């Protein structure tokens, strides 16, 4: 599932290509019938909030896209290709086009519904939001921090990779109850998430290890050295050599080092 960095990158790209322009909006073969509501209208702007995208075509015409596990965009310049496969949506101008396949949701929302979603979602590290509300919520909960970080109503945009890596970088046990997490650590996680996600947007790749911590310290991170714990179960921790552990938490595999992130 794409994490917030990918969503924000798409929003930026789609703003550049289509923002402020009159666009064609098509949903071939009845896969997105409401396309007619947006077709040949001006797409004002594209906003990413957490893992949601909103394409603003004016009052009560917000195209909501949630990618889910299988959603993906294809973009290109020039004339759009022939429509193929399970295409849900195409947005195009004579110069640019994008195609969307496999999203969990692609539908036209009222402005009220979109605003309610924004209100419900927690602060997004890439939107310059104030994290205070999230800190307050975490401080009231006995739920493990590893679960709270995945809760989009606490922070939005963080997914499974960032959960594992942010906790490791903060040397915090995923099993620590929210109300027992040190406030300074929480601040550090928030700042760190913004930095890592911005880097990932630019690099189109999530790298969380510091060069000094990698077995190969020079050059770009090798794929197997890009993360401290994510999908490294059974392999030695780069810091202490202990085997990285895994366990299902919140329906997704959690990864952690039992020594660096002792309970
Ligand atoms: Zn370790």
Tag the structure with descriptive keywords:
alpha+beta, binds zinc ion, globular, metal-binding, 2 domains, five-stranded antiparallel sheet, single chain, zinc-finger, DNA_glyclase_Znf_dom_DNA_BS, lyase, N-terminal domain of MutM-like DNA repair proteins
Q: Helicity level, as a percent range?
A: 25-40%
Outline type: globular
Task: Give me the count of strands.
Answer: 11
Low-confidence stretches: none
Q: What is the CATH domain class of the largest domain?
A: Mainly Alpha
Pattern of helices and strands: HEHEEEEEEEEHHHHHEE
Which structural class is indicated by helix and strand composition? alpha+beta
**What fold name stands as the CATH topology of the largest domain?**
Helicase, Ruva Protein, domain 3
Number of domains: 2
CATH architecture assignment name of the largest domain: Orthogonal Bundle
> What Rg do the Cα atoms give?
20 Å
If you average the pLDDT, what whole number results?
96
Fraction of residues in β-strands: 15-25%
For the largest sheet, list the strands in their spatial order. 2-1-7-8-6
- Per DSSP, the total helix count is 7
The largest β sheet comes out as: 5 strands, antiparallel
* Distinct small-molecule ligands in the complex: zinc ion
Organism: Granulicella sibirica
GO molecular function: class I DNA-(apurinic or apyrimidinic site) endonuclease activity; damaged DNA binding; oxidized pyrimidine nucleobase lesion DNA N-glycosylase activity; zinc ion binding
Protein name: DNA-(apurinic or apyrimidinic site) lyase
InterPro entries: DNA_glyclase_Znf_dom_DNA_BS, FPG_cat, FPG_N, H2TH_FPG, Ribosomal_uS13-like_H2TH, Znf_DNA_glyclase/AP_lyase
């Amino acid at each position: 599932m794409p994490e917030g960095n990918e969503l924000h990158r798409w929003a930026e790209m789609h703003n550049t290509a289509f923002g402020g322009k009159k666009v064609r909006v098509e949903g071939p073969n009845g896969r997105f019938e409401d396309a007619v509501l947006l077709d040949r209208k001006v797409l004002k702007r594209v906003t990413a909030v957490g893992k949601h995208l909103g394409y603003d075509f004016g009052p009560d015409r917000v195209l909501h896209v949630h990618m889910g596990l299988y959603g993906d965009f294809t973009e290109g310049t020039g004339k759009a290709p022939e429509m193929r496969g399970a295409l849900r949506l195409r947005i195009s101008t004579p110069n640019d086009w994008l195609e969307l396949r496999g999203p969990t949701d692609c539908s036209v929302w009222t402005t009220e519904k979109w605003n309610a979603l924004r209100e419900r979602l927690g602060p997004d590290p890439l939107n310059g939001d104030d994290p205070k509300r999230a800190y307050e919520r975490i401080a009231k909960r006995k739920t493990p921090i590893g679960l709270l970080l995945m809760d989009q109503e606490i922070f939005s945009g963080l997914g499974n990779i960032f959960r594992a890596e942010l906790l490791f970088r903060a040397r915090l046990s995923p099993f620590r109850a929210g109300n027992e997490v040190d406030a300074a650590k929480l601040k550090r996680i928030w700042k760190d998430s913004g930095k890592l996600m911005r880097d990932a947007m630019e690099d189109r790749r999530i790298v969380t290890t510091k060069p000094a911590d990698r077995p190969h310290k020079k050059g770009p991170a090798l794929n197997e050295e890009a993360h401290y714990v994510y999908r490294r179960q059974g392999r030695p921790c780069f810091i202490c050599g202990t085997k990285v552990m895994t366990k299902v938490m919140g329906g997704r595999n959690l990864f952690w080092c039992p020594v660096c992130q002792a309970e």
